[in-house]
Amino acid sequence: MDNCTFVIFGATGDLTKRKLIPALYQLVAEKKLTNFAIVGVAIDDVTASDMLNKAREFIEPLDEAIWKQLENVTYFQRVDFLNEQDYVPLRKRVEEAEKKHKLSGNRMLYCAAAAQFFCPITTNLVASGLAKKTAPDAKPWYRVVYEKPFGHDRTSAHEINECIARHLHENQVYRIDHYLTKEVVSNIALIRFTNCVFEPLWNNRYIDQVQIILSEKVCVGDRGYYYDKYGALADVVQNHMLELLALVGMEAPELLKGDYVREQRAKVLQKIEVVDGLLGQYEGYLQEPGVAPQSKTETFAALMLRVNNPRWAGVPFYLKTGKCLDKKEIVIHIKFKQVDCLLAKNCPSDSNWLTIKVTPDATFTLNLNAKKPGYTNELVQMSMEYCHSCIFGQRSAEAYEIVFEEVIRGELAAAVRFDEIEYAWKVIETIRKDHFSLYPYKQGTVGPTEALQEFSRKHGMRWRS
Amino acid sequence: MDNCTFVIFGATGDLTKRKLIPALYQLVAEKKLTNFAIVGVAIDDVTASDMLNKAREFIEPLDEAIWKQLENVTYFQRVDFLNEQDYVPLRKRVEEAEKKHKLSGNRMLYCAAAAQFFCPITTNLVASGLAKKTAPDAKPWYRVVYEKPFGHDRTSAHEINECIARHLHENQVYRIDHYLTKEVVSNIALIRFTNCVFEPLWNNRYIDQVQIILSEKVCVGDRGYYYDKYGALADVVQNHMLELLALVGMEAPELLKGDYVREQRAKVLQKIEVVDGLLGQYEGYLQEPGVAPQSKTETFAALMLRVNNPRWAGVPFYLKTGKCLDKKEIVIHIKFKQVDCLLAKNCPSDSNWLTIKVTPDATFTLNLNAKKPGYTNELVQMSMEYCHSCIFGQRSAEAYEIVFEEVIRGELAAAVRFDEIEYAWKVIETIRKDHFSLYPYKQGTVGPTEALQEFSRKHGMRWRS
User: Fold this and answer.
1) Is A158 a catalytic residue?
2) What number is the ipTM of this complex?
3) Which positions ≥6 away from A182 have C-beta within 8 Å?
4) Residue B409 backbone phi and psi in degrees, to 5
5) What are the pLDDT digits (tens) for A308-349?
6) Which of A227, A348, B121, B308 could covalently link to A369 via disulfide, CB atoms 3.0 to 4.6 Å apart?
7) Between chains, do A194 and B344 touch, taking CB under 8 Å as contact?
């Protein structure tokens, strides 16, 4: 991998200590990262050690020798993101680090900050010379990473995109959806397109419906102030869930990499139609710290979408997500159509399902009908499983380790293109305009039970669990 | 299940003690068989106890109470199969047993005898009134079971069929291929036709080739005298292997039962073309007891066949079988076509295979390409497996238990229809006419190595192991 300097905006924040520093530590431990520097940036008055030490508890097990390696190349610079002047000493700090550690000038500028800072940071980075607009393959490279949420609606996302486009080439821009780097998620496209057995079935002739479920057991906790401004739709549907849908639904790209994949994902997102939906809010949400007393923010959503193209005409895509539910699970269920029954009796009562579990296990499971042992032509449901997370002795890389790796390699497929973001926000905008009802639900349940039953009845579907 | 009397011709033979009596014992143990009688028939002068006792060592574990149940309903009658007069006391013996055990007169007449006796036994059964030609659903029923080999070539099989047809309705005739009753074999059609995911792929657009392999470790042993007259082609290709091919290749029957299935199997067998082949004989075969000193009988065969219909045009079916080989295995490998590679590098080096293992395990395995954990877009081969014989706690029924059950139920699919037998013999006849070379091979190997390599090279194929 190329050597580089990581400049982290938001160095004293939650993401940095919980995910970014631990991921960098791991890359060092695995010797994938050998020649690099880290420059933490925030408005707070802290030291590099302060910043690093807050991450220690999230690294397990921690090897002091590797930690020392990290300490030796880590710096901190106090910067007001909005103050252009502050970027001059930051540039100096970065250049000193590059000189001291004999780096080539490659820079990964990581915006672990709120979306309102994306435009000012980008503008100031380029104005100060910390980053430059370059051709895709230029050396040294300048790559800017933006964390989600990328704006709060279609208009704000568009404005940020416009601002970024003035300063950087789109191929320098990494709008991160870390779900796209999860092992089993990147496996979806590989399994679809490197095997002969799935793609012929992957269309409305054989697929009956798709269900994408993202359930969380946790409630909003101490994120109330942030969460109440977004809600489930903006927090997970707009990004993670629609990107999963796009991966499942996309046409074959010319190559399974970079912009070829993004182009195909964008085409799916562009064709999404919102058909029906219901929203929910868990009982007790209004009492959570940071939540507005009369808040109408949804903590639950069940949606029926369509993808209006020849491959998916007539196939419903059901999405369901919520906080404070009965279980933690991220899963995609693909239901194949029922076949004509050739049996005189005991016809199969359920069809075939391909289940892709993202969390807690990373597995692919194919549910089939087979012969009940010892009984003529009676059927049982059986399953063939591939457990990505358990077959290989090797530990799977954490999402953020892969984020760093992919950005260093210049792999764009794990990042979301400007138009994907805007199409996805458009879907959320449509849902908001539809004013779906907001139902209360009890904590630790499956959501608003009666409303869900009515939804199922109406669409003749059953959520698979 | 209907009550019935089992009349076993060849009651002192190998099959009776090794398979038939143990299967009946098992059906009693499982309480599937409660009201029945057994009448053993042979030219030997033995008692019912003699006959039964020879089977004891093949039953494990043996429960004396169940054994006693069997003894109480078992009789023996000495009969010269060719002597019409001997069938009069046999009928009397059967009728007495039916009266004593309050049976309804249903009779399963089981010819565990050589094919030369099939016509005389059938003729005499009907002449003596032990069996009657009846409509398919008549009560009581008379069903005659014929063990393989059914003749020794197409002409002899045809003659037996003609003889049987004069005396019985085809639906009273059960030409047994006990492979068709093996759990995983009857699962082939069920899995193909009760799931949405296989049938769309099951044709020459997606399937590259089919391999059917039946390897035996054992040599001819004490069966030399019998085996030398038949050879591998007549012993296993004509029946087991071609029936497996027919099951894999057949079109969807209207119903997955009885004559609907046989009709479709027959259509496949009718369309088989022999393209290429090689034969082998293991070193030391000529010294086996009972084998002719200059014997040219094959103990090994590798064949390339085609099925000339729209579904299979262009798809080679490779068959390989032999005795005295390096392993015992019965397996069907279905190779799917390679997909266009969408990866910039590290394209999949092997395609997808569906493997159906009949022996030693009963498993379905789907081999796929998947992501190598932790590495962007590198592939590994993974497999999804369904183990029919190990998932269910329950013991799988032995083939002959199912033979008895299916005949009692009047299920014809496990039996081979008159035309199937003749089409299959025609294939063997074609192979014999082609005078494929006979190569020697060492015992305990994969067969005639060099000739096999030449065969693989010529056809651009590789035997999967």
Assistant:
1) no
2) 0.86
3) A358, A362, A399, A402
4) -75, -10
5) 999 999 999 999 999 999 999 999 999 999 888 888 777 777
6) A348
7) no
